[in-house]
């Protein structure tokens, strides 16, 4: 297992993702524990991309339950179809929100959150968990984030 990430802080966002994803693959290879892997992935994403909040919500008994994360304390449970995370789960797709205040039914776990991206991971055709990434900057996520974070989600699906 790697003890540190090797990412140039002066790289573009696309270059940081391109350097990070192979290191994530190496980090989780051979580790069977999902919580350990999600914890390291959350830490690596926050460290590399300086996200305000990054973490996972895991589907349990018809709710999303807070899993490994990095950042301020968070909402513990989210219902199906509620907020950005619950909507991503319900619609089974990535939701990119430039301004959380404009998203109907947004759940404000932190008033500092301004924009958000949520991505589902699937097991057996069903959403098993979502990755929730928040920024304290409006319109902070773009197509690069969506494309590269979706690659991270495909990696996570191999762990489920």
Automatic annotation (TrEMBL):
Segments forming domain GAF: 39-157
Gene3D superfamilies to which the protein is assigned, alphabetical: 3.30.450.40
InterPro entries in alphabetical order: GAF, GAF-like_dom_sf, Phosphatase_reg/MetRdx
Pfam families, alphabetized: GAF_2
Recorded superkingdom: Bacteria
Family: Belongs to the free Met sulfoxide reductase family.
Protein's UniProt name: GAF domain-containing protein
Organism: Chryseolinea lacunae
